[in-house]
Amino acid sequence: MPASPETPLLQARGLTKRFGSFAALSDVDFVLEPGEVRGLVGSNGAGKSTLVKILTGAHAPSKGQVFLRGTPLPAGAPLEMLEAGIACIYQHSSLVPSLPVLDNVFLGRQPTRRLGFIDRRTQRERAERLIAEHGIEVDLGALVGNLSTVKQKEVEILKALALNARIILMDEPTAWLSRSEVTKLHRTIRRLKSQDVGVLYISHVLDEVFQVCDSVMIMRDGRVVWNGLVSEIERQRLVDLMVGEKLGAASRAATHQERKPGGTGEVRLSCKDLTRRNLFTGVSFDLHAGEILCVAGLIGAKRSELVHSIFGSDRFDSGTLELNGAPIRIHAPGGAIASGLGLVPEDRHRDGLFLAHSVAENLSMVALNKVSRLGLLRRAEMNGAASRQIERLGIVPQDASRIVGRLSGGNQQKVMIGKWLEAEPKILILDEPTVGVDVGAKAEIYTILRRLRDQGTAVLVISSDIEEVMTLSDRIAVMVSGRILSIHDAGTITQDELVARIGGAA
Amino acid sequence: MARLRRLPNLPLALFFVALYVAFSLLSPRFNNATNIENILSGYSFMAILAIGESLPILTRGIDLSVGSTVALGGMILFDLSMILGLPGYIAVPAAILATTLAGVVNGLLITRLRLQPFVATLATLAAYRGSVYAISGRQLYPELGTKAIRDPWLLGVETYFDVGGATHLDRLFGFPFIPLSFFMMLAVLVATQIVLSRTRFGLDLKTVGGNPEAARLAGIRVDRTIVAAYALSGFCAGLAAVILVARMTTSTEALGTGMELTAISAAVIGGVSLQGGVGSASGPALGAFLLGVILIGLTLAGFSQYVQQIITGTILIGAVWYDRVLSQRRRRVAERLQGGEHASIA
After folding, report:
1. Is residue A335 domain-shared with residue A472, that is, in the same domain?
2. What is the CATH number of the domain that holds B226?
3. Domain membership flag for residue A490
4. What per-residue confidence (pLDDT) applies to A475?
5. What is the distance between the alpha carbons of residues A267 and B322, in angstroms, rounded to a whole number?
6. Does some domain include residue B17?
7. Rounded CA gap, A334 and B258, in Å?
8. Same domain for A177 and A323?
9. Domain CATH code at residue A128
């Protein structure tokens, strides 16, 4: 228990981290009290990850110190930080899918008897006690790989609690969760609060910060630019502080754009009764030139499966596709690209980018025929194409030879979109284009998509982010459990109505 | 459901029985005591190799060098016994120690030099085989090549037990003599199964293979776990070498050539996922005997050696494909569960 009422649970004083001459973090102070949920927001590259890495002991600060109940903690010592009770839930799962929940909860620190035999009974008793204490419902015998994403996050929380964590850092915990799952996770966080656990909540989704956090800390360029109670700050001011006045204005402007339902009126792509057994049924819609059609729905509504079928990277069982009024059959992505389709897939690390290759190589990947002759690549044209897209998309740094894996999330996403722009598709499909992308980069991506639309490209966007759907779309298709429930002109539906429809209300 | 999970190899076991029955019907010489004895003595060492091989595969690696490691163990036994005249109770432990060290070298190449397991063990496959030629007592003293090892401690491994006679079961049907190597295999199987299912080390192996990053973040000593997996694979190769040398009463430079393919096949057939993190000890053992039944069955049914190799390759392709299907099904189950949850909310 606290040494004195004034001693904070966790305190950072003057944390500074320099990489060479670059200061990733300068002079950061903050406190975290027991039972406090503190939001941490900032653009990509603002220093959030560096701060987290110092708190988990992955980095040692160049200056400054972290105190736990007044006692200084060792710098750059991951195991000591864990033992001191600071746990972190990373964006990417740190569970083993092929093992049961019980083994995952005690990963690496199972209670053992002599000769390294696992003490199953103690392990189970301790897990059951934790579950009862924190009211987290989960089947200890289930394989983690068979659990839903939100359950997996709860297992990670349980794993942190098994370490007696008094402080839990959550790095983008909701990046892959659907709306109802987010609500569940927030319920769990509130329960942690009542158990006097301190939570540092990092998120790009500002709504969540306002929903679940008590206080918020805004970082920009390695500094804390604002620190205080959530009730004391307005959403717009928060955005301005995060991204700076200029980008803030841009993001504001991005939300107030004229809508063009139906685009030019010319039907580019028409799906008629597309069906894939066990996935989606009777999907019909028209996509017009010069409009942005958003397919809204929950994760698991089979929207990604639908667009992969359209793009030819997967198949469908029945139904027809029409391109510019003529029926076509697409058997492979190559055929789709030749017909003028482009697809920016959901998971950029897995499906979209060659992380170890340069920006230039990634950008020319789908338009190789434009930069090669007789099967030989022409470097000059490749670099020309690259600098064209870097300019057009505002990729930072403006360096075509930069390895893509080193770029921030927002810039990686721009590279993904850019490689399709080089192929000049007539129809561009984007699957969750702004997951893990900060507010500033989001606004830029919206602007890019709008510009495309205005040039007459038909844009199909899958998004689980309601706000994004409301901001970006000219028309909205609601997809629930593999069916298109309804299609709306974006101006005629309110956010609340949309949420209700997505939830399956007729 | 829970009870079925405890029998992960149920389909494999059923397939095994079906195949056994089929061969029995196909050839009158298949289901008799002599043939069962042949299968047991001919494939127990392979089951040991397969169990050993499954440990590196569990960590998402692979050990291609086991065949060469067997040869290394065999030749060291030969040299110690024939050239130095050392008794078996020294030569056998020394040979097994050497193959275990060969496994440690594999592990160090992978963890210290950060080599891909495939590349590291492909290199040592060649290097260990070369070492066998370099230390070969048959080359140094050609006259030894025609002599048999007579050490009783070593030859004692090639013993058969008349279990049928002792239990009087042979009065009911023709009961095979059980080779000692079969009991050695059972001991390795039981020990490995216990390690995998009940100990920290076993869980660490699965964790390292299942999610290396999670293992590192959980403070598991990933490198040490990997080295231990390859060391144990080497240890099993040593045991196999002892069994083989005891049977042949000599060793050759070519001992164990190509055995890595059979061992890997048996492990994969036995449900050890090449994606890491999933596997048991009984599966690979069953896989080895399944291959044995197929090969001996085909021989008795009159198929040529080459056809048998084609069939082994085909079975391996089938098993890898099945492994992929299984992991895809696991993913689909997860997605369906997610979908179900949304449906319940709606």
Report:
1. yes
2. 1.10.3470
3. yes
4. 92
5. 44
6. yes
7. 40
8. no
9. 3.40.50.300
A399, A389: one domain: yes
The dihedrals phi and psi of B29, each to the nearest 5 degrees, come to -85, 0
Is residue A237 less than 8 Å (CB to CB) from chain B?
no
State which residues form the domain around A209.
10-252
Find, among A157, A206, A215, A203, the residue nearest to A184 by Cα: A157
Least confident of A189-198, A260-269, B246-255, B271-280: A260-269
A2 assigned to some structural domain? no
| CB-nearest partner of A82 from B206, B211, B219 | B219
Residues A381 and A370 sit within 8 Å (Cβ to Cβ): yes
Helices (H), A73-136: 78-84, 101-105, 120-134
Tell me the C-alpha to C-alpha distance, in Å, between residue A145 and each of A311, B72, B324: 28, 41, 15
Q: Which residues contact B317 (CB under 8 A, 6 or more apart)?
A: none
Helix/strand number for chain A, H first, E second: 18, 22
pLDDT at B346 over 60: no
**Does residue B132 have a pLDDT over 70?**
yes
- Backbone torsions φ then ψ of A460, nearest 5 degrees: -115, 120
B-chain CB neighbours of A101 within 8 Å are none
Domain housing B245: 2-339
In this structure, the answer to whether residues A264 and A366 fall within a common structural domain is no
Domain end (from A200, A226, A252): A252
Contacts of B244 (CB under 8 A, 6+ apart): B45, B70, B74, B251, B255, B256
| pLDDT tens digits, one per residue of A293-329 | 999 887 777 888 899 899 888 888 889 889 888 888 8
- Asked if B343 and A481 come within 8 Å (Cβ–Cβ), the reply is yes
B206 within domain boundaries: yes
* pLDDT score, position B76: 96
Containing A471, the helix (H) or strand (E) segment is helix A466-472
- The answer to whether residue A4 sits within a structural domain is no
Rg (CA), chain A: 24
Asked whether residue A476 falls in the same domain as residue A419, the answer is no
Question: For B309-324, what is the mean pLDDT?
Answer: 81
Find chain B residues with C-beta within 8 A of A143's C-beta. 330
Specify whether A205 is located in the same domain as A326.
no
Within this chain, do residues A485 and A446 fall inside the same structural domain, yes or no?
yes
Strand partners, A100: A143
Alpha-carbon dihedral sign for residues A332, A338, A340, A342? positive
Domain count, chain B: 1
Q: How many residues does chain B have?
A: 346
In this structure, is residue A319 part of a structural domain?
A: yes
- pLDDT tens column, B74-105: 999 999 999 999 999 999 999 999 999 999 99
Number of independent structural domains in chain A: 3
Residue B58 CB partners (closer than 8 Å, separation 6+): B196, B205, B206, B208, B209, B229, B272, B276, B277, B278, B279
Residue spans of chain A under pLDDT 50: 1-3, 506
CA distance B246 to A458: 75
As a whole number of Å, the CA-based R_g of chain B is 21
Is the confidence metric ipTM above 0.85 for this complex?
A: no
CB atoms within 10 A of CB A496: 9
Q: Which amino acid is at B17?
A: V
pTM: 0.75
In chain B, whose CA is at the least distance from the CA of A115?
B199
- Please report whether residue B157 resides in a domain: yes
Predicted pLDDT of residue A172 = 83
Same domain, A32 and A74: yes
Give the tokens for residue A342.
């482009």
Residue B240's pLDDT band, with cuts at 50, 70 and 90, is: very high
B344 within a domain of the structure (yes/no): no
CA A50 to chain B, closest CA, distance in angstroms equals: 17
Closest in B213, B333, B337 to A94, CB measured:
B213
Asked if the Cβ–Cβ distance from B199 to A107 is below 8 Å, we say no
Distance from C-alpha of A17 to C-alpha of A15, rounded to nearest angstrom: 7
